[in-house]
Write a structure and sequence with these properties.
Rossmann fold, Tumour Suppressor Smad4, 6-stranded antiparallel sheet, 289 residues, alpha+beta, 2 domains, 30% helix
């Protein structure tokens, strides 16, 4: 198997990674370790592994690294393994993947897989795959403006700090979108493949990661006060039921208009609107234990 390691993932990265690798090697598992050194590098390494006929590629990093590796594996039968090293590790929580080093190593060695069906974000001839969620509006603005040293020092707490800093800086302009042909507006939008958001917090209980389609969470109005309320509701697992939050199902989401609202995908910067979200052409197999 190939281990694709993002060296700038969360604070636990190095110690957890080496403990997992020690267990694998001690049990006779043959592996290669390669570090990423730029955006998109994990995708390139995964695509090369497919061409070489490797049976599994393991993403050692956060949700963004997982999505990059998944991009490289799309359309193949190569399994995607995960060593969760990121800040939030939302997909690992979503699929109840192991975090303890021995359990992670055992899961990778055993190789039992589960299907997940990613989403695609298309913009001006470019395509980006996401495995957990895509956000447009305030949460994406926080991702775009978050200084990396702050994230590295404080982990998930950095997002709270940056949210407070940006409350009165963000314009809260309405976002126009079309869900399976139905036009509507919202202040912020989260297109989710999974139930969880920001770690292990429940947002979209109707989400179905294994099937095509999306749970679309619409924050119909927003301002600094409402945003504070949403932030307080998140750790209580009540964000999805907060006033002004609407849930819909859709297979195609078109963000229309020419405004440059920020976008994040799996917790990483993903450019600006407009774009279109649709189902990936194929599911991928992810190792769960």
């Amino acid at each position: 198997m190939l281990i694709v390691f993002n060296p700038i993932a969360g604070r636990r990265r190095a110690a957890l990674l080496w403990r997992v690798l020690d267990v694998l090697v001690a049990n006779g598992v043959r592996l290669d370790l390669m570090e990423t050194n730029r955006a998109g590098h994990a995708e390139e390494l995964a695509r090369d592994a497919v061409a070489r006929g490797l049976p599994m590629v393991v993403a050692a990093g956060g949700d963004g690294t997982i999505a990059e590796v998944a991009n490289g594996l799309m359309g193949s039968t190569v399994a995607l393994g995960v060593i969760p090293l990121g800040t939030a590790n939302v997909l690992a929580h979503e699929l109840a993947l192991p975090f303890a080093p021995r359990a992670v190593a055992a899961a990778l060695a055993f190789g039992r897989t589960q299907q997940i069906w990613p989403g695609l974000a298309q913009r001006e001839g470019t395509t980006r795959l996401f495995v957990q969620m895509l956000g447009a509006g305030f949460d994406a603005h926080v991702v775009h403006t978050l200084p990396f040293p702050l994230k590295r020092m404080f982990g998930r707490g950095a997002y709270v700090m940056q949210t407070l800093r940006e409350l009165t800086r963000y314009g809260y302009d309405p976002i126009s979108l079309r869900l399976d042909g139905q036009d509507m507006q919202a202040a912020s939008v989260i297109v989710s493949k999974g139930r969880l958001y920001g770690g292990h917090y429940l947002l979209a209980p109707d989400a179905q990661p294994q099937e095509p389609g999306f749970s679309v969470v619409l924050f119909e109005k927003a301002d600094p006060g409402r945003t504070l309320m949403y932030g307080a509701a998140l750790p209580l697992n009540r964000l999805g039921r907060a006033p002004g939050v609407r849930h819909m199902r859709a297979s195609r989401i078109e963000f229309i208009g020419n405004y440059p609202a920020p976008v994040q995908a799996d917790g990483d910067k993903a450019g600006f609107l407009p774009l279109t979200v649709l189902n990936a052409p194929h599911p991928i197999r992810i190792v769960v234990g």
